[in-house]
User: Fold this.
Amino acid sequence: MKKKMNTNRIIGLAACLLITLILVAFVAQEKKVTKHIAGTGGKGFAVLELFTSEGCSSCPPADELMATIQKESQGQPIYILAYHVDYWNNQGWKDIFSSPEYSQRQVQYGQWLGSPQIYTPQLIINGTEQYVGSDESNIRGAIHDQLTDGSVSMLTLKAHQDNKGLSVQYQVGNVVKGSSLLIAIVQKAAQSKVERGENAGHTLFHVQIVRALKNEAIRASGSGNMTVSLPKGFDEQGWEVIGLIQDHGSGQILGVTKAELSK
Assistant:
């Protein structure tokens, strides 16, 4: 009888210990996730460039992750740009947001990163690190690390619409030789009902969709003007303008900001 009671006590203690360890691990994970999105006190930024497609069945989880990060990171210097590539368009469904220009940008990243095999969903962070776009744990960790670093170049943008499109005035501090300015016209949210292909029958939700992209070398003076053609339906509420400074030798993003829009 005594031996049986001791055995039950040991089993009970073991069960309590197991539950405690699970709780500790859960709390640690929760703290880790919060840490990745909360402010770090650093002067860095995180530019998340997602290469995705409505024709790819692996892409919706990555799109959903970007939407979650966007919601959680309000007020943080985290910038999301979703490029819909066109090489899935011959698989039964044409992605209306796709462009060969975005596929070419992904190919260029393959050259910069020494990884020519492109795929979807692929996420590039600050032009130097790549991840599967749905790899939440590693992506959150990378965001946290990038936020602790500082910007190499400071960028200021002012933009207004005219009869030619969007006129963008820029000012760059600490110009790096060989760098260029990219202006992305971004639609904040949209949804599509996919009728064919791998995602047939699903309604897909997207955030931060790049609808136009223009690249121009930065003048030695660090200041200049660009004119960007605006996509149909552009307005100040549902869209935004993001500027990136990129080193054309390495692909590293050196600075980023959103444009101030004026009428």
